[in-house]
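for the recovery benchmark. tokens below, seq after
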């Protein structure tokens, strides 16, 4: 009787230790993730919409004369996208220097829109999933219609007023000059991540698969 009880307990223990069978919902989500990953890896998944060359209220002609941006090349690894992005920011710095005859805030608007266009182009060259994630991040940080001169001036003014070298209000001239400087600098954390990916020899498909694995897990 005692041996029989032990056998029953052992069988119950083995039964309780079995992994639960995934339900239909889990398999459906897994299938959707797999198809999305496959489509994104092959550059078939559509990207979030967004203009490469948004219209300006000021200096429309000056923006068009920059001629910085070519058509995006899809399916590039992050480090190669970053290289192209840096090249366009260097070109932007040169071209903005040629606009010094204009008022600083007029140049700052060109800088904001040109940087937004460069950012959009870079995102179109990478994963659609990453593009969507970055747009959600922009919304969480900046809110609706984030990359406008007015929105950037509000954020930059608040930052400058908190700095030690500025007490009280900050003039529009100082704010716009600071925006121009920021428009030609890229994020150091993203730069470091891109350098690591280049050193590892990561390709677009590899990066995309790792991204989806991270999301699904």
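predicted aa per position
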């Amino acid at each position: 009787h005692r041996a029989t009880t032990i056998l029953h307990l052992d069988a119950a223990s083995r039964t309780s230790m079995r992994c639960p069978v995934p339900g239909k919902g889990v398999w459906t989500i897994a299938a959707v993730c797999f198809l999305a990953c496959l489509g994104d890896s092959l550059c078939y998944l559509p990207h979030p919409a967004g203009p490469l060359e948004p219209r300006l209220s000021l200096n429309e002609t000056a923006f068009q004369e920059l001629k910085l941006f070519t058509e995006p090349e899809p399916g590039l690894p992050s480090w190669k996208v970053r290289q192209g992005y840096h090249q366009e920011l260097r070109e932007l710095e040169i071209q903005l220097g040629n606009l010094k005859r204009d008022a600083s805030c007029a140049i700052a608007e060109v800088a904001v829109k040109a940087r937004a266009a460069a950012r959009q182009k870079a995102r179109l060259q990478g994963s659609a999933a990453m593009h969507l994630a970055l747009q959600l991040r922009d919304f969480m940080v900046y809110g609706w219609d984030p990359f406008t001169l007015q929105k950037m001036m509000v954020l930059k003014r608040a930052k400058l007023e908190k700095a030690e070298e500025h007490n009280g209000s900050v003039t529009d001239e100082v704010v716009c000059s600071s925006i121009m400087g920021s428009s030609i600098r890229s994020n150091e954390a993203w730069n470091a991540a891109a350098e690591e990916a280049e050193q590892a020899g990561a390709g677009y498909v590899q990066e995309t698969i790792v991204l989806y694995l991270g999301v699904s897990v």
